[in-house]
Structure formats: structure tokens, C-alpha cells
Specification:
The structure is a single chain. The model has no long low-confidence stretch (mean pLDDT 96). This protein has seven helices and eleven strands. Helices cover 37% and strands 21% of the residues. It is globular. The strands form two sheets. It has a nine-stranded mixed beta sheet, sandwiched between helices. The protein has a two-stranded parallel ribbon with strand order 7-9.
Length: 218
């Protein structure tokens, strides 16, 4: 059994991830900001932990991370103001990595996005730029850390049914179901072969997609 802490525990992907991990015997704690979401998080088998990561410093974050075996960052501002996007998607994410190192929890999985590259191509006057800029900064911070990190970069998220099959480095928008993203996170947590890698993926077309385990090489 592993103890896994999921930041953004009420997110659509996190709510699909928790049952997969619990079914395998893992203990999952979902970090949420809104107390009204406790029932939803606990309803999928997670323990709910109410904490505002946007305002917590490294030491406070280390306190809630300590004692776990792995951290999953699936939190985000969800759009809105550029200031809050940077505060959550970049700054809080970076503090959580520093906190994981301080707490001695080395395994860290970052849920990023397909276009998170240095040359993401989003112009600065585009409303999507703060997100693209923040995610790239967070990804780079993880790469430079001493953590056993994995960056998962799915394409455009859909509500389609899971296929259990993905394509690595897809073309275009790389559409992928949230359920399959959750399955990729679960596989990565239990697959040391993903450590140190950035994995860009989508569902692909039936001819090019392969089972998740085969795609990850685990």
C-alpha cells in the first residue's frame, strides 16, 4: 500500500483517479480548498484534507505532505485572473515541490498539458498565456528539483468513455478522455520507469493507440 496525496482532490481527473488507486489498495488523501467538497471527495474513497495551497508557505505544505509516499499535483486556478493563475499553477505548485523535498517525499507526479514547452507559441496578449507560462515554469522547476518527478502532459480533455489506450506525442490537440488521464497517472505512480520523463499523450486514433502500460513502457 502507498499513501498518495493529491492536490486538487475535487478536480474531475482527481475524482476519477482516487477509485483506481483505492482499488489497488492505496490510501489516498485529496487536498481541497472548499469544505463543501468533502463529501464528494470522500465519496470516491479518498480522505479529504481542507487546505488553501494558494496561501500556504513551504513549511505548512511540508507538514501535510510529510508521511506520504507520493504527491500528485492536479490543482489549478481553473482560469480567471492571470494573478490567481500564476499564484496557483506556478507559485503554489513550485512551493509544493520544495515542500515535498523538505518532507522527504521524493515521488512527485505533475499533471501538465500537451503544449507545455519553452516555445508554446501562445502570444502574451492571449488570455491563455498566463496558464501556458505558469505551467511551463512549474514543469521546469520539477525538472530542476531533486525529486523523482514525472510530468504528464495530456492534450485537450474530453468527457469520453475511457479506452485504456493512448498515443505518445500525438499530433494536433491530442484529445484524451479524463478517465484515461486518471489511468495514466495511476500507472505512472506504480511505474518507476516514468521517473524523470515528460510524457505527452492523447487518445490518438484506434490504429495508433496502444494500451497504457505499453505506451508508458512499464
Amino acid at each position: 500500500m502507498s499513501r498518495i496525496l493529491v492536490f486538487g482532490g475535487h478536480g474531475r481527473i482527481a475524482l476519477l483517479l482516487a477509485p483506481l488507486l483505492v482499488e489497488r489498495g492505496d490510501e489516498v488523501t485529496g487536498v481541497i480548498r472548499n469544505p463543501a467538497h468533502v463529501a464528494d471527495v470522500e465519496g470516491v474513497g479518498s480522505k479529504a484534507l481542507v487546505a488553501d495551497v494558494e496561501s500556504m508557505d513551504v513549511e505548512a505544505l511540508a507538514e501535510i505532505i510529510r508521511g506520504h509516499d507520493a504527491v500528485v499535483w492536479s490543482a489549478g486556478a481553473g482560469g480567471g485572473s492571470p494573478e490567481r493563475t500564476y499564484a496557483v499553477d506556478r507559485d503554489a505548485a513550485k512551493r509544493s515541490m520544495n515542500a515535498a523535498e523538505r518532507a522527504g517525499v521524493r515521488r512527485y507526479v505533475m499533471v501538465s498539458w500537451l503544449g507545455s514547452t519553452a516555445d508554446h507559441g501562445v502570444p502574451e496578449d492571449d488570455s491563455f498565456f498566463p496558464y501556458a507560462d505558469a505551467k511551463w515554469a512549474a514543469d521546469e522547476h520539477l525538472r530542476a528539483s531533486g525529486l523523482e518527478g514525472t510530468i504528464l502532459a495530456p492534450g485537450a480533455l474530453t468527457f469520453d468513455e475511457p479506452t485504456s489506450r493512448i498515443q505518445i506525442d500525438p499530433t494536433g490537440r491530442g484529445a484524451v478522455s479524463r478517465a484515461d488521464v486518471a489511468a495514466v497517472i495511476a500507472a505512472s505512480l506504480h511505474g518507476p520507469c516514468t521517473i524523470g520523463r515528460t510524457i505527452r499523450f492523447g487518445n490518438g486514433d484506434p490504429a495508433s493507440a496502444v494500451p497504457i502500460a505499453d505506451a508508458l513502457g512499464c
